[in-house]
Amino acid sequence: MRRLVAAGIAATVGWRGAWGQKPEGRPSTPPVPEPPSVQPRHVLCFLGKSSNLAPLKAAVSAAVRDFATGFSADEDYSLSEPDKRMPRSFEVNRDRVLPNAWTAADEQAVASHRSVLYVLGPPMDRQDTVKVSMAALQLVGRLIDAGAVAAKGESAGVAHGLDRWRELVRQGAQALQSGDLLAQQRVGRLAFARRPISDKGYLQSVGFHLVGLPEVYVPQSMGSELQAVALMDAVADEMAQRGLAQVLKERRGAHTLASSYEEDDFKFNPYGVVRLPR
């Protein structure tokens, strides 16, 4: 949490160079890298309409009792006063994919907020990512009902407007009721991942690790940003349905564990990156 806040609540975090050392030995037979022992976690940011955080904290406590095991309200960085960085942070991270996912009313709500509550999720094993992300989405719904005027997933840096959050919460509840794990994974990805991010000739996703998937990098030469997003989502669905190896074969993609983020960054994906060919 300290790293996140020190970085300006994710508003000014830039891309870092890929990490990792050049493998030793013959270039034709490099050693297979081991996945980093990093567990993703949700960090959620909620803005309140008053300086009294008690209703939002009470909603968090009730959610933890009901379904959000391991989540907790952060006491160190939550604020009972406005944070002047929030308008910039939400503007940088707002959902630009779905039309009307962010409205003038949402912008005004952020500008007039009077408090900030951070909620921390538990570190997630890969097999638990979908379950925990569904709990995180339900938690968003609970806090909106309790009076939050804006919400953002800090782990990937994505903010939806309240109406869009409500729709995602509804879709998540429907997927949970039907027991459709693929639908749960997809809704969790749409809720908490950000796309597209531009870097070094690629349009990229950030946050697929929150549902147990590698990121997808699409060459900018393959089309518009919306076309790239559609392709990212299609590849993510294919990985969920058929597995990484089959998708790499069909798409002629390459999988790497190299990342633009350090391992102690919330955006770091321990499951790696799938790069589609140029």
User: Which regions contain 5 or more consecutive residues with pLDDT less than 50?
Assistant: 1-33
In percent terms, what proportion of residues is strand? 15-25%
Mean pLDDT across every amino acid position? 89
> What structural category do the secondary elements indicate?
alpha+beta
Return Rg in Å: 19 Å
Biggest sheet strand order reads 2-3-1-4-5
Total DSSP E strands:
10
Write up this protein:
This protein has helices at 2-6, 54-66, 86-93, 104-111, 129-145, 162-178, 181-192, 225-242, 244-251; strands at residues 43-48, 72-73, 115-120, 148-153, 158-160, 194-199, 202-206, 215-219, 254-256, 273-275. By secondary structure, the protein is of the alpha+beta class. The strands form two sheets. The chain has a five-stranded antiparallel β-sheet with strand order 2-3-1-4-5, sandwiched between helices. The radius of gyration is 19 Å and the shape is globular.
Structure summary:
The chain is an alpha+beta fold and 278 residues long. The chain contains 9 helices and 10 strands. Helix 6 (162-178) runs antiparallel to helix 7 (181-192).
Provide keyphrases for this structure:
278 residues, five-stranded antiparallel sheet, globular, five-stranded mixed sheet, disordered N terminus, alpha+beta
Topology:
Elements: H1 2-6, E1 43-48, H2 54-66, E2 72-73, H3 86-93, H4 104-111, E3 115-120, H5 129-145, E4 148-153, E5 158-160, H6 162-178, H7 181-192, E6 194-199, E7 202-206, E8 215-219, H8 225-242, H9 244-251, E9 254-256, E10 273-275
Parallel strand pairs: 8-10
Antiparallel strand pairs: 1-3, 1-4, 2-3, 4-5, 6-7, 7-8, 9-10
Helix pairs in contact: 2-5, 5-6, 5-7, 6-7, 8-9
